[in-house]
Design goal:
Elements lengths: L5 E7 L32 E6 L6 H6 L1 E3 L19 E6 L2 E5 L5 E5 L5 E5 L30 E8 L5 E4 L6 H8 L17 E7 L17 E7 L14 H5 L7 E6 L9 H15 L1 H4 L3 E5 L5 H15 L6 E2 L8 H12 L3
Parallel strand pairs: 1-3, 2-4, 9-11, 9-12, 12-13, 13-14
Antiparallel strand pairs: 1-8, 2-7, 5-6, 5-8, 10-11
Length: 347
Amino acid sequence: MKFVDSCEVMAVAGDGGKGCVAFRRERYIPHGGPSGGDGGKGGDIVFEGDDGKTTLLDVALTRRLVAEGGEPGRGKDQYGKGGRDLVVQVPVGTQGFDAETSALLFDVDAVSKRVVVVRGGRGGRGNIHFASSFDRAPRRAEPGEPGQERRLRLELKVLADVGLLGFPNVGKSTFIRAISRARPKVADYPFTTLVPHLGVVALDTDGSPAPTARRGQHIGASFVVADIPGLVPGAASGAGLGVRFLKHVERTRALLHLVTLDPGEGRDPVKDFDVINAELAVFDPQLAARPQVVAMSKGDLPEVREAWTKAKKKFARRKIDLKLVSAATGEGVRDLVLTLHALVKKP
């Protein structure tokens, strides 16, 4: 399924039904009073969080959401039926902004959470409400109120405890495959990951990651990791895949920053760390200040292990404990997962 994390949609609530002008016409009651009922209320448009959805594709294809209008009132004091609400299922983490002012209107940040996006119009009153001592046969009724309309810009920001950061091809997708049941594409070239992936890291009762845990198996705890596409210099300004994916780590409680050797491009792990953190600071200073765990991936390679010994000293001068992990052999994975779990579960 195509991943869509941003779209615009027009939301149109239902109009209220018009009130009715009617009079009682019964045998032996030649001058019956007014009996026109009220119109029904128009339907609202409601967004509901659905943990089974991971993309805004369905909403993006719709483009225009229209709720049902209320029925008009009828004679014999019959009120019109209210229009049905239009309930739209959206991924958890969907935010709605006014497309014109960019003001944040709502945030669907929990499963089954409901927010009323636009409200249906009130039904018009029938002529039974206008009878008085001066006018016992009113021939007027109210039209229904129009439903609210609003153009929305929807943004999906995935909900995760830990965000994976790093340059392209540092092994983020391989790592998340090793600790969870998420299956992002893995290949030996940059930008393998083009969409965010969420992986639930289940810990066994001894604290070990249990990526193959089945429903019903006893698990000690769990947390969610978001694997986003690799970042490059200028990402905060839109370079590479840019801000389109940086927003997906805004809600995380901690960050896992992976670095490694990339002899083909002549990069240095310490410089890579500084570049990515500079991009975070430009994008959102609060995000850059979030707790980070830094690890050098691909620890099964001899040249990486040798480079880790030198890089560890450089990071130590910054009071950062550079860990060494290998998703291929599992080395260091358990300790890293426990460190992340301790961070995200802090009160």
